[in-house]
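Key result, reporting period 2: structure in, sequence out.
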């Protein structure tokens, strides 16, 4: 593990952009995913202690400083702590990294130093050294990559929570991306949820514990599905079939003969992520068009594919040179079948009509809210959050997604519901909330100003969905 002095020496100047990972984090590449419940929970406890100590030290140092010096020290503390968190999450990976991705998806809510550093967990986390993955590829594909591919890059060009991606070339000359799962990550995910259940033991006394348990179990199921690359390959094929050339939205093609449960080989899309797209200084219309494509892609998957794409974060979208939008990760999804699909249709009716009464009816069903007076505040908050999450559907005309106060309101509403323990809801609610914050965060970063209603109407009509029958 790098020392604090080494980390501090490698940090950028206070307030500077974090354009590269600190060099000591390269040592993380030689560390396999830690397994064992006690070991993982111990590492998390150590991280919490380090974070607390860092801010306590900042407070002590700032007592006798000027205001300008205190602000400089606070920025330094943010950077130092963010790197510690990045290092620990890059080491633990799995569900812990997912938490970091969620934090990084809240721009202007978390300190910018955290966002700028932790957003690397989306696609640029510290990769694992090739020597720790080579055997995995051989065991899964039955031969060394040098024999299976015309060329294979041993240096990963992307790394995230469950695996990392290497560039390669097929004998045909086609460039591909090979996603390789971290060894031991499936076990680590299971152990993280076992530890979470241990921490949640006091919640068993709450009358709504059954709903909380159902939601935690659903999240565990989603992540366990995400470590099965064969399921992701099937979802990629399903999503790819939904888009046409004129949509300007592309999903990579899978090469099944070079894919298994732990290795996924797919067409390589050459493009840039959101931060690089924005650094190029796109015009308002270019940002609006990017936002329209992101929204259309998400809604097409919902209306025609009956799938909630719950992993809406910058690492899963590529802006291609020809103006197309690429979607590259389909591990974390919610398939909408039978009653869940019908319930989503009933919820969508309230969003389409703009009637608060219709929305309240859908929210009551989703969150099991009764007519009891004790549930009145729960209903109010739930409908308010629904208004925030989907108000752009019926606001009338162009919606300004770049409004900071509007974005923060959703955070405040969610925090209030958690604080009041309003947890009674459908099991997939945490995944849906992750999706809600994801789409709003992406469009917020783009500072988009668009009217989404025409897109919704087009997608409904194309899917043959008569919303009035919901």
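The corresponding designed sequence is given below.
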């Amino acid at each position: 593990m790098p020392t604090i002095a080494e980390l501090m020496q490698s940090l950028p100047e206070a307030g500077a952009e974090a354009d590269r990972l600190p060099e000591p984090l390269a040592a993380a590449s030689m560390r396999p995913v830690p397994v064992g419940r006690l070991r993982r929970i111990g590492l998390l406890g150590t991280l919490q202690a380090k974070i607390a100590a860092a801010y306590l030290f900042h407070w002590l140092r700032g007592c006798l400083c000027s205001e300008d010096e205190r602000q400089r020290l606070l920025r330094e503390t943010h950077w130092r702590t963010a790197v510690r968190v990045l290092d620990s999450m890059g080491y633990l990976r799995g569900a812990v990294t997912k938490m970091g991705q969620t934090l990084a998806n809240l721009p202007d809510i978390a300190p910018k130093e955290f966002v700028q550093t932790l957003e690397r967990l989306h696609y640029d986390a510290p990769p694992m050294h090739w020597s720790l993955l080579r055997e995995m590829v051989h065991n899964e594909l039955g031969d060394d990559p040098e024999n299976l591919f015309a060329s294979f890059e041993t240096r990963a060009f992307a790394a995230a929570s469950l695996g990392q991606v290497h560039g390669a070339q097929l004998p045909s000359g086609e460039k591909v991306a090979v996603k390789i799962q971290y060894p031991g990550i499936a076990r680590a995910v299971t152990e993280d949820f076992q530890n979470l259940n241990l921490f949640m033991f006091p919640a068993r006394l709450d009358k709504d514990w059954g709903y909380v348990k159902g939601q935690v179990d659903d999240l565990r199921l989603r992540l366990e599905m995400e470590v099965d690359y064969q399921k992701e390959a099937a979802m990629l094929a399903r999503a790819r079939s939904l888009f046409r050339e004129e949509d300007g939205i592309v999903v990579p093609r899978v090469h099944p003969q070079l894919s298994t449960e732990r290795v996924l080989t797919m067409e390589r899309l050459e493009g840039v992520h959101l931060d690089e797209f924005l650094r190029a200084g796109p015009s308002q219309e270019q940002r609006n068009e990017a936002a329209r494509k992101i929204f259309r892609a998400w809604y097409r998957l919902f209306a025609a594919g009956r799938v909630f794409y719950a992993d809406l974060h910058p690492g899963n979208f590529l802006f291609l040179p020809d103006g197309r939008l690429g979607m590259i990760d389909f591990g974390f999804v919610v398939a909408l079948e039978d009653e869940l699909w019908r319930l989503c249709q009933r919820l969508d009716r309230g969003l389409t009509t703009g009637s608060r009464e219709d929305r309240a009816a859908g929210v009551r069903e989703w969150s099991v809210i009764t007519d009891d007076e004790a549930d009145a505040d729960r209903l109010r908050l739930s409908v308010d959050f629904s208004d925030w999450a989907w108000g752009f559907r019926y606001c009338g005309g162009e919606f300004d997604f770049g409004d900071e106060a509007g974005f923060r309101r959703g955070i405040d509403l969610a925090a209030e519901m958690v604080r009041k323990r309003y947890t009674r809801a459908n099991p997939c609610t945490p995944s849906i909330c992750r999706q809600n914050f994801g789409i709003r965060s992406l469009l917020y970063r783009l500072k988009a100003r668009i009217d989404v209603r025409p897109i919704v109407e087009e997608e409904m009509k194309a899917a043959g969905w008569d919303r009035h029958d919901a």
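The radius of gyration is 23 Å. Residues 4-122 form one domain. This case is discussed further under Risks and Mitigation.
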